[in-house]
Amino acid sequence: MVAPDILLIGHVARDLLSADPNDGYRLGGTVSFAAVTCVKLGRRPTILTSAAPGLDVSELPREVELYVLPSEVTTTFANVYTDAGRIQHCSARARPITAADIDPSLRRPRAALLGPIADEITPDVAHVLAEETLVVATPQGWMRRFDEAGRVHGKPWESASAILPRVDAIVLSLEDIGADVRRLDPMIEQVPLVVLTEYRDGSTLYRRRDDGTILVTRIPPRPAREVDPTGAGDVFATAFMIRFQETLDPVEAARFANVTASFGVEAVGVTGIPSREAVFAYMRENPFRDGAHG
Fold this sequence. Notes:
The chain has six helices and 15 strands. The protein has helices at residues 30-40, 160-163, 185-190, 232-247, 250-264, 276-285; strands at residues 6-9, 13-16, 25-28, 45-51, 65-70, 76-82, 85-92, 111-114, 134-137, 144-146, 152-154, 169-173, 193-197, 203-208, 214-219.
């Protein structure tokens, strides 16, 4: 069997269209947005997830290879956007994904994205991936807790010490850290690349040098006409992973990711995610000079 090009690990979710489940849902979760992004950018994605039988995955492109671990339920979210930020509720959580679930045929992709949304990826998963695989993580799902009503709240990343040693890059948002950049410090100390996405302000790249010093680069945004912000961080992380795997240039990758995600928010769901050609065209017309500082 040919090794996967891009392996995406995490729950595919049902994102309810309203508070009333009878109104239906669209496919969500980091791996869903990531898979569409991969296809749009010309790469071959493989998803490893867990979900209940009968989940409609017809929204995924036909190019996606899908491995579904059986579960009694499918992870289900409701998202409400307010002026004060996003309010989320999780009414069901599928079974976790462990190292034992990673078939040997899936362990040597060019790049892998660990994209938990409900604390579903156990720490041992990162350690069964091949050493030469570029491993990127979006830790938001490890930084969530759920109250009795299913409302999502932030929490410290308790499994970080077991996961960070095998991760090459971390991508997370201001929301994930409660806008407290001091929470990045343990990640920056252990991971060579950390990218903080900052909504309409673009992103900041933290690069740890061999001598331990940190190089900080602000990556400017592409101005966008926001229609639907859901999944923007997932699109960013996937685009960053792809371009970094191709170029080994984190600044180029972050710029590429900023532009890709900005196009994505200009339409509902995944319909705005751009082609590689559209991203490159914008980048050619709007060159960026690296103003990194230590």
